[in-house]
Amino acid sequence: MEINWVSVVCPWKAFQLHVLPLLLLLVLLRCSSPCQCVVDLDPDDKALLLAFKSRVQDPSQSLSSWVGTNCTSWSGLTCENQTGRVVSINLTNMNLSGKVLPKLCKLSFLEDMNLSRNNFTCPIPLCFGNLVSLKAIDLSHNRFLGVVPDTLMRLRNLKELVLNGNRDLRGLVPGWLGNFSTNLEKLDLASNSFCGEIPESLLYLKPLKYLDLGNNNLSGNLRDFGQSLLVLNLGSNQFSGTLPCLSASAQSLNILNMANNSIVGGIPTCVASLQALTHLNLSFNHLKYAISPRLVFSENLLVLDLSNNDLLGPLPHKIAETTDKSGLVLLDLSHNQFSGEIPLRITELKSLQALFLSHNLLTGEIPARIGNLTYLQVIDLSHNLLSGSIPLNIVGCYQLLSLMLNNNHLSGEIHPELDALDSLKILDLSNNMISGEIPLTLAGCKSLEFVDFSSNNLSGTLNDAITKWSNIRFLSLAQNKFNGNVPNWLFTFEEIQTVDLSGNKFSGLIADGNFNISVKFNKRDIGRMSREPFVAMPNVHVRVSMVVTGSSESSFDYHLSSTVGIDLSNNLLHGEIPQGLFALQGLEYLNLSHNFLDGHVPGLEKMSGLKALDLSHNSLSGQVPGNVSSLKDLTLLNLSYNSFSGFVPKKQGYWRFPGAFAGNPDLCVETSSGRCETESIPMVPGKSFHDGVVEGPISVWVFCLSFFVSFYFGIVALFCSARTRNYILHMKV
Ligand SMILES: *[C@@H]1O[C@H](CO)[C@@H](O)[C@H](O)[C@H]1NC(C)=O
Ligand SMILES: *[C@@H]1O[C@H](CO)[C@@H](O)[C@H](O)[C@H]1NC(C)=O
Ligand SMILES: *[C@@H]1O[C@H](CO)[C@@H](O)[C@H](O)[C@H]1NC(C)=O
Ligand SMILES: *[C@@H]1O[C@H](CO)[C@@H](O)[C@H](O)[C@H]1NC(C)=O
Ligand SMILES: *[C@@H]1O[C@H](CO)[C@@H](O)[C@H](O)[C@H]1NC(C)=O
Ligand SMILES: *[C@@H]1O[C@H](CO)[C@@H](O)[C@H](O)[C@H]1NC(C)=O
Ligand SMILES: *[C@@H]1O[C@H](CO)[C@@H](O)[C@H](O)[C@H]1NC(C)=O
Ligand SMILES: *[C@@H]1O[C@H](CO)[C@@H](O)[C@H](O)[C@H]1NC(C)=O
Ligand SMILES: *[C@@H]1O[C@H](CO)[C@@H](O)[C@H](O)[C@H]1NC(C)=O
Ligand SMILES: *[C@@H]1O[C@H](CO)[C@@H](O)[C@H](O)[C@H]1NC(C)=O
Ligand SMILES: *[C@@H]1O[C@H](CO)[C@@H](O)[C@H](O)[C@H]1NC(C)=O
Ligand SMILES: *[C@@H]1O[C@H](CO)[C@@H](O)[C@H](O)[C@H]1NC(C)=O
């Protein structure tokens, strides 16, 4: 009966349509007959399963269907259709936790056990070795702990052993894994805490196709594998030695990951004879020497990551074959010491979606033909010695999401035609010598989220193009020659978290615009504080990542870490500071120093997220801004060289920031003895900020700051004379 069912259904297409009614009739007849459509669960197995269930925590009620005797209705179970014995148990991702009872080991007909993605916390039960029919066992992504029990070597029929993602699974990789089963095809021990070497027996285990030992603490010299593997992941361990040729896998190996080890020597050309290879990751090792021109991978290779090594010499002219249908999708040669020009032939890699060549010593111009690579989504050529201008043809890469050309010697102007890049999210041109204005047409780059034009030779006023970047999160135009007013729309982007206009020639008033719109400025994100250390303003970090999933599908992502802050320092701004700025609860950083701002500063109490405030070197007057005792995160405060006056009692909390008031001659600060100390001359000017500072990137900032402080201390005498002051101010303009 059962066999009929199968043979009727399978050759479905062979039947003509007129057979269909007959077929349906057959099916109906079969199912209405009192045969074993369903088999009752074996009562012994049922009792074992209920005992198991009674001891696991099941907050999501995943096992609530485990009632009655109908095996098909018990979730995760498959029973043998004649005997009702449990042959497969699949409890993956059911939010179960607690211990796995040894009772489970009496399900003696079990062939598949999948407990993955739960929260079981116990050693792997020794008695699993009794389940001699098991073909696959998957305990991945739980919290199993201890060692792999030797009893498992009795599982002679095992094809798959998957134990990855149990951080407390430790000890040596047992030697018997190489010869206990003659069927073992898949061994996944990744992301555990195994140490020691790869047992020799594994190198000769013939049926093995899939070996993942990545992300453990394994060591030893790399050896060659004797079987034909499909997947080999040894990444993120401490393997040393040189790269083996893996010639036994020349026709089979798809994925080879040896990244993040201590592999030395050159890249042997024999790895290019791995004909089936689609993913090769050798990044984060100590590979060195030039790449041989004979190292040319097949057109099957999709991902090549050789980044973060000590490779040198010219970039390879041809690294992989290409055909119309396939070729490299991702090429990462960044963080090496490649020199010379970017070879033109790189523009023949037509399928390329991501090109990372940053942090090398590349010279010459960006090849114009890069615009032929119309699938490119990411170009990162940053931190090289490239010169010339940004080629106009780059607009051919119309699908670009990220263009990073920062830290080079690029000159020329920004082409108005770049507006064709309307998907662009990240545009980093900082630290070059680019001049001219921001073209109005860049309004067309509507998707921009991250724009860094800092440290160039850009000039002109801020035009309305920027107002169209409605998704902008980070905007830096610092250290250029921009002038004109700070427009009042500047702070009105919903997603904005960093605005840096420092070191320009912006003048006029800071418009009292609408500061209420930015979510980041206004809402204090408590989670953020613990997640990320405070990054001082210039230390923005954006990390682009691209994952190739299918044969040509990829997914783009980027992580931005930057301070929630506003920096308008070192400009020519006049007038009062708008009150609205002092109501921003989310703001971590505010720097308005080195301007000509005057007027009073209201209390800072509302700025509960504040970590650094610098209003120094202005002409601010009146009382100091209220009580700062409640601002627990404030680590850096500088109100020096203004004209604050009055008396600062100890209880206002400023004692945490010695020196913060230097150069305010009319100010009295209460000392521990209760006396009043005038702040005309700072006691130890350079030292003043070190006390409040912990560590990390901020210390660089503090260094610069203290440098400025001592520098100004040096010329404070000069400033006393009105003539010199005018002279110096004139120079600054
Ligand atoms: C998993 O269980 C926890 C309690 O242990 C519960 O808070 C959570 O919502 C559950 N998750 C799912 C997806 O059911
Ligand atoms: C057993 O359960 C399955 C699925 O829940 C259902 O289709 C079937 O009718 C049930 N059989 C009996 C005899 O209750
Ligand atoms: C019942 O089991 C037999 C042997 O295990 C198998 O060949 C057959 O396909 C099964 N029938 C169903 C309906 O699962
Ligand atoms: C195991 O269960 C999960 C979740 O219920 C399901 O997605 C998956 O397809 C099952 N796997 C097998 C091999 O039956
Ligand atoms: C696993 O359980 C531990 C406590 O036993 C709990 O802290 C943790 O959040 C749980 N993890 C998941 C993914 O449910
Ligand atoms: C266990 O189940 C998960 C989810 O269905 C699946 O991805 C995994 O391949 C299964 N493990 C085995 C060994 O079949
Ligand atoms: C596996 O090999 C070891 C020695 O290398 C041997 O002692 C053991 O008997 C072998 N086990 C099996 C199941 O062949
Ligand atoms: C990794 O192994 C080395 C010895 O090989 C040991 O010193 C180190 O503590 C281990 N690290 C971890 C995280 O277990
Ligand atoms: C490299 O491996 C170490 C552990 O061995 C891990 O902590 C680190 O995150 C890995 N680095 C990368 C870039 O994957
Ligand atoms: C290569 O491995 C490194 C280290 O684990 C990882 O950070 C990187 O994302 C991998 N490269 C690719 C293209 O997946
Ligand atoms: C590549 O670019 C060059 C110059 O930009 C152009 O002449 C050539 O036709 C392009 N080739 C293809 C295949 O698009
Ligand atoms: C900066 O731009 C100006 C024109 O705006 C030009 O005269 C000057 O030479 C440029 N400086 C550098 C270093 O490129």
From TrEMBL:
Q: Which residues form the signal peptide?
A: 1-37
Respond yes or no to whether keyword Secreted is given for this record. Answer: no
Keyword terms, alphabetized: Cell membrane, Glycoprotein, Leucine-rich repeat, Membrane, Repeat, Signal, Transmembrane, Transmembrane helix
Q: Where in the cell is it found?
A: Cell membrane
- Annotated Leucine-rich repeat-containing N-terminal plant-type domain ranges read 43-79
A biological process term (GO) from this entry: regulation of meristem growth
Query: Which superkingdom?
Result: Eukaryota
Q: Which residues cross the membrane?
A: 698-722
One GO cellular component this record assigns the protein to is: plasma membrane
Q: How does it sit in the membrane?
A: Single-pass type I membrane protein
Listed GO molecular functions?
A: peptide receptor activity
Q: Major location, coarse class?
A: membrane
Into which family does the record put it? Belongs to the RLP family.
Q: Which PANTHER family match?
A: RECEPTOR-LIKE PROTEIN 14, RECEPTOR-LIKE PROTEIN 8-RELATED
Give the protein's recorded name.
Answer: Leucine-rich repeat-containing N-terminal plant-type domain-containing protein
Organism whose genome encodes this protein: Quercus lobata (Valley oak)
